[in-house]
Amino acid sequence: MNIALVDDHTLLREGLVALLSQAHPQMQCLQYASLGALLTGLESQGAPDLVLLDLGLPDAQGLDALQRLREALEWVPVIVVSADERPATVLACLESGAAGFIPKTAHFELLWSQLSAALEGRIALPASFRLQSEELDETPHFSDRQQEVLGLLLRGLSNKSIARRLEMSESTVKTHLAVIFRKLNVSRRAEAMVVAARLGFRLPAWSAEPALLSPATARLATPAG
Questions:
Q1: pTM summary value
Q2: Does 213 score more than 70 pLDDT?
Q3: What is the dihedral of CA 176, 179, 184, 190, to 10 degrees?
């Protein structure tokens, strides 16, 4: 697995690399101090399997960095690592295509736990992050097609990308999402990701190619009758 760390704080990057390398010696960690450096590095290094992205970069601030990266690396999951863990920021990142959010302010054990979750394909979110609409009486059931749409949504793909991947129209994707949102008791994709994370939904091992829900998720999301 190749991971790209994009952060202009050298000490933080090196600390994360040390953590990751110690736990996964076979992992290759590429460090970049700016978004431009990463985009340039793609020409020689190729696309990584996963990106850990800071929102405060010298050449791209806030969601601009995330949105530009999602355009350049459509199929690569991007986990935001930021000191700004306000609920509005977390939701905005998920809405803009992040596949997770890890707060820099987390203590060592929690930081490592969330990094591990991201590497295992789980949706990493701040431990205290909750939605009022999260409480469900039971785990919802989804059809096979709904599982596919939800799986790609959790990867951070846009409606257009989901439609292209599944060879359907965007209007059909929106129809599936409307049903998924209703079953999860949410109104938008960011909230759907939060609820899915709490229900234990996850993706298989990260790869540069798009992947769908893992067998563990399929057991949670059995087709509706």
A1: 0.80
A2: no
A3: 50
